[in-house]
Amino acid sequence: MGELAAVAAPSDAADGRRFHDEPRARRLLDVTEIYAEPAAADSLRGRQIIARFPEARLIETDSHWRIPHLHGNEGNVERWVRVKRETLVLGERKSFGIRPNGRSADWIAPGLSNGCAMACAYCYVPRRKGFANPITVFTNVERVLGSLGRHIAGVGRKEEPNQCDSHAWVYDIGENGDCSVDDLISDNTADLIRAFRRWPTAKASFATKFVNPDLLRLDPQGRTRIRFSVMPPEDSRLLDIRTSPVPDRLAAAADFLDAGYEVHFNLSPVVIRPGWEQSWADLLRAMDDVFPQRVKDQAAAEIILLTHNEDLHQVNLGWHPRAEDVLWRQDIQQPKRSENGSWNVRYRNATKAQAVETLSRLIEEQAPWLRVRYAF
């Protein structure tokens, strides 16, 4: 099992230190410029964020979506990671719709961020942002919480169990970002987790590739599901740029469960390349070795095969072409129309079906305790 057997020591989350002030966190986010809509900069949350990065240059912008220096600037491809590390955008969320999902969650909530400081080569979010994908933080938290509260009251209790959850309505609060990373910037994630504590018929959910020990302080009381995304470490080193190492994500599972989170896993994305079956078998065996029984007893997983995009393929060729050796496989991929109408590529139907069957068999052999909620 090699490196997968070596797990990271848990961080001390109760001695008064904050992880967001440690060098590891500062390497991920060393903000030197903040683009801010005027109302966002003037808000309480906006002022808190600006104070968090006192050395950053504050630049006014009319719209968080239309910043010529960032969006549509092809020259930013060569600065792909640097922009993520050094640039932050503050805006106000304008839409508050909550739409049905049925896969990861019952509902997709209006998120409090868009974009990420990490640089996963397959991420779908930058496809809509154009050559730069720094974090945009939405500062009008109260309006998002208000929309959630009204929706939760309106749908009432869940009468019948489904694959999302047997009792609670599950709301994905991090569709277009990573809530663990967002917590390094502001209290937005903390505010969401605390809000769900008072909604007994609902549960928050978010996927993450970043281990943030500060989240252990928030006492979610079982009302937040954290989904650690995992893949074989050799894939992660190539594709999950700037994320927490996979062994660290595995090691964190018990800590988060003990802190009051429900802990699930995304086997995501599954990338088909030579030797992928053995690599996933090794990962599943490591999960079986590392997790204590209490983690296994409540664990569930989502299997998500890679979906890619030609525009992102072109962007990656400009900053990380090695990733495209495994992501861009037109010999086994086909076009796919996404929910928003754009064209992506995914594995051909027969190839995908065979991969799901293979991974399901590997789970039964190596981690039979791992319930698969769905495969996509």
List the defining traits of the structure above:
14 helices, 20% strand, globular, 376 residues, 35% helix, five-stranded mixed sheet, alpha/beta, disordered N terminus, single chain, eight-stranded mixed sheet
Mind explaining what this structure looks like?
The chain has helices at 23-28, 38-42, 44-52, 80-86, 141-155, 179-182, 188-197, 233-239, 246-258, 276-290, 293-298, 310-319, 321-327, 349-366; strands spanning 33-36, 57-60, 87-91, 99-100, 107-108, 113-114, 119-120, 135-138, 169-172, 202-208, 224-230, 240-241, 262-270, 300-305, 307-308, 333-337, 343-347, 371-375. The protein is α/β, with parallel strands linked by helices. Strand 16 (333-337) and strand 17 form a beta hairpin.
Indicate the structural class. alpha/beta
Biggest sheet strand order reads 4-5-9-10-11-13-14-18
Uncertain runs: 1-14
The general outline is: globular
What is the strand content? 15-25%
> Which whole number gives the mean pLDDT?
92
How many E strands?
A: 18
Q: Report how far apart the termini are.
A: 27 Å
Q: What profile does the largest beta sheet have? A: 8 strands, mixed
